[in-house]
Design a protein that fits this description.
- This protein has 180 residues and is mainly α.
- The chain has one domain (3-172): Transmembrane di-heme cytochromes, Chain C (Fumarate Reductase Cytochrome B subunit).
- The protein is 68% helix and 3% strand.
- The protein has seven helices and two strands; from the N terminus they run βαααααααβ.
- It has helices spanning 9-28, 35-58, 65-68, 72-84, 95-117, 127-157, 162-168, and strands spanning 3-5, 170-172.
- A two-stranded antiparallel sheet has the order 1-2.
- Helix 2 packs across helix 5 and helix 5 (95-117) runs antiparallel to helix 6.
- The chain is elongated.
- The two termini are 18 Å apart.
């Protein structure tokens, strides 16, 4: 079995760094003694997303938004093919994965912005801002569940360990029916 490099080191470090920073921020959010840890994890997540957005413009082929951010008709066609069990294997992100990335990046920016705003004079003690912040955090958790579910389904359907691919950066060489 031959492999090809798909995910560059930045994409892989970003992915696992975001997993760690969100997990830390989420788990420390309700603990007063861990407030500074929560803040720093949130700022780390925001910094990672900012860097990822830049890398999505100037990075390697499979990291670029132009490679994996699909139009609505592409997403609908892909989701229909998933339901019928006829979806193509994508070397990079499939259309549903591309949408998920955009949603997660936007949600992380939203939770980071609302978290930061809660530390400013204008929104200090604002229950409305705190509720918006919690909606973003819980929304991210729901997106993560969908993301992990999608990874499991695609890994099983295409007999490919996508978690390993996000660790090593390598995937199996594409076949003739695969989307590059």
């Amino acid at each position: 079995m031959t492999t090809v490099k798909v995910w560059d080191p930045f994409v892989r470090l970003f992915h696992w760094g975001l997993v760690a920073s969100f997990t830390i921020a989420f788990l420390s959010g309700e603990e007063r003694d861990l407030r500074m840890l929560h803040y720093w994890a949130g700022y780390a997540a925001a910094a990672l997303v900012t860097l990822r957005i830049l890398w999505g413009v100037v990075g390697t082929h499979y990291a670029r938004f132009s490679q994996f951010v699909p139009g609505p008709s592409t997403v609908l066609h892909y989701l229909k093919s998933v339901v019928t069990g006829r979806e193509a294997r994508y070397l990079g992100h499939n259309p549903a994965g591309g949408v998920m990335i955009v949603l997660l990046l936007l949600a992380i920016l939203g939770v980071s912005l609302t978290g930061h705003l809660m530390t400013t004079d204008a929104f200090w003690g604002s229950t409305t801002m705190e509720e918006i912040h919690e909606v973003f955090a819980n929304g991210i958790l729901a997106l993560v569940v969908l993301h992990v579910s999608g990874v499991i389904v695609e890994s099983l359907r295409h007999r490919e360990n996508l978690v390993r691919a996000m660790i090593t950066g390598e995937k199996e060489v594409p076949g003739p029916a695969d989307v590059r």
